[in-house]
Amino acid sequence: MTGTTPGPGRDDRPGPGSLLPRSALAVDPLDAAELVLGCVLEADTPDGTVGVRLVEVEAYRGRDDPASHCYRGRTARNAVMFGPAGHLYVYFVYGMHFCANVVCLVDGEPGAVLVRGGELVTDPGVARERRPTARRDADLARGPARLASLLGLDRGDDGVDLTDPSSPVRLRSGTPPDPSAVRTGPRVGVAAAGELPWRYWIDGAPGVSAYRPGGARRRRRSAGESAR
Fold first, then answer.
1. Which of 51, 99, 191, 224 falls 20 to 30 Å from 210 in CA-CA distance?
2. What domains does the chain contain, in order, with CATH numbers?
3. Structure-derived torsion over alpha carbons of residues 87, 18, 58, 53, reported in degrees to the nearest 10
4. What's the farthest any 2 CA atoms get from each other in the chain?
5. What is the C-alpha separation between 34 and 103, in angstroms, rounded?
6. Chain segment 21-53, per-residue pLDDT in tens
7. DSSP class per residue in 204-224
8. Mean pLDDT of the chain
9. What predicted TM-score, i.e. pTM, was given to this entire model?
10. Around Cβ 204, how many Cβ atoms within 10 Å?
């Protein structure tokens, strides 16, 4: 992999509530995945601002990652993944759901972190209005499609700058998880790149989705289990 920079140390992340700077995200996707775990992704919706603390993420590289949307090169669909870092990459999956990624790496080198699961940190009333069918609070943002739906993200948000305070979607530093609680394992539903341990999650967090190995597609997939 070329064009990568060393990942930031835990002590380099800004204080809780601060916007994550672009420079912190211009790193290898594996480093970026560890960095954004515990951060808060917030979006301004018609119902009010909704924020979720990220408890599960997945790293995707580009040209050396067969599971990445950028593996075969740049297209109009995946252009945002080529940088600069700190932007949001949103895509439509299975003709049903949207999923969102935080773009990382240096400008021109594709890479991103899929936000897979989160826990609500803002008004539950607003969240319930957006996801009235969720049986439990833990289900509000458990899985990438549910998380995107809760935040009201769609293709119109593709390319928004998460580091800009005036942006409708922002990524803020949160309370870092205890290192002893961070787990890694294979990405959910990914077969193309083998079982690389590029999924990161906070052990015991209710918003972490169930693991499903890659393979033949099921005829029906739930909104919470859609994967890139």
1. 51
2. 15-204 (3.10.300.10)
3. -120
4. 46
5. 14
6. 999 999 999 999 999 999 999 999 888 899 999
7. T-TTPPPP---SSPPS---GG
8. 84
9. 0.85
10. 9
